[in-house]
Amino acid sequence: MSSIIEQGFGVGDVICLLWFKRSLPRYCTQFIEIYIILCADHGPCVSGAHNAIVTTRAGKGLVSCLVSGYLQSVHDLGVLLMMLLATSRMLVTGVLLRAGKLEKTLVQMMVEGSLEGEEKAKTIVKEIMLYEVDKIIWNLLTKWIHESLHKGKEALQNGKEAETWNPKSKAKPIAQSAVELVKLAKTIMEQFFQNPIGITEDIVQELVNGLENLFQDYIMFVSACGTKQSYVPVIPSLTRCNRNSKFSMFLKKGCQCGGGGSLKADHISNATKEGHNPRPSSSRGTQCLYIRLNTLFYLLTHINSLEKTLSQNLVVLPSTRHPYGNFHRSYNNGSYFEKVLSSLPTTCQYMAEVAAYHLIFLDSDSIFYESLYVGDTANARIRHALRTLKQNITLMTTLLTDKAQLLALKEVMKASFEAFLRAVPKLDYHIVSKDFESLNRIFCLCREGLIAESVMDIEAAIVEATRTTTEFSNAR
Question: What is the pTM of this model?
Fold first, then answer.
């Protein structure tokens, strides 16, 4: 007894010494201890194994004694293990792995130590109801993935219903539903890596497909905010009279003499008031679009992070169950979330366009597009609208994250340039050209370095080419 205490033997070691008269490997003693804990409330299983061991021990050797007890209790233990599958996944997985290892060892011991010959031993092995540990673990892990993804769908739906596009803090202008979705995906991924088994291709694909579907569903929800075409003014139908015709000049002189002066005065008055008291014209709707754009870039960053985590920490084993051809293609290209990562940049571009056109052609319509060069070109220039545009850009850069600012500012520039895509008399060309230079200068100075000079030159060239074409058509 003193020797047992000095060597720190556990319950499993003592049982091995009492029944088998020798020490067994550590995994055997650990399994016996776990077995006792699992079977503590299951009397028939314990007593049946005990009786079988005692009965067999009198007439047979050690191996036969152990195997007889194992055969008696294996079925009852399997029932108990299945009952515990829903309690602790990690504990049960560990128990199953040890049970499978012990099962193989005992079967091998029985074959090698059988007193009745090898053929008789093989016959007995065929009659054993094996645990099928690999199958149980695979089913258990698959079930856990499905349950986790189902919880993710429920959480996503609740987040979509509760989303107001009003971030909790100015320091993190991101939709709360996106934060919760990313947090959930990271938790699932962390728990997935805690599995003490080899990860196969089919298991990885099961998880990746589920997470990718969640992300794609949410991205569709974020981008469901209309199109830029819905904010662009309707182009009037063509007439037989161009801006340089005698009839147009006659109407222009009539307006200067008083005819239609009220309309011109109203536009100039509105623009002047806005110019003397410049303030952002960005509506609540535009600000919500900025939050949506931030959210898309937030998803892009964190999905790339999940992609990196999978690539660095995952050792994928060949699949023996359900081959996934698409998975091989994605994995060979180095991308697990290939679909969602390839679609996100396009969605970000789309969202930036919608936000820009909403700002220019809806929020700023009264002081920009509707007032610009209306009535009299010289008295309806762009200087008043530029002051408000500066305020709008300042507010936009305050609300947007650094990664979203470049794309959003470029789209605002393109949308504001479209205000010049209208026909004006040739006599007013120099006025319009100077206004365009002033507008161009704002984007050069605002957030210097965000927009490449080459990009601005390209957009300006498009406007200039369109204007030249319009003048040529009118001249004809």
Answer: 0.68
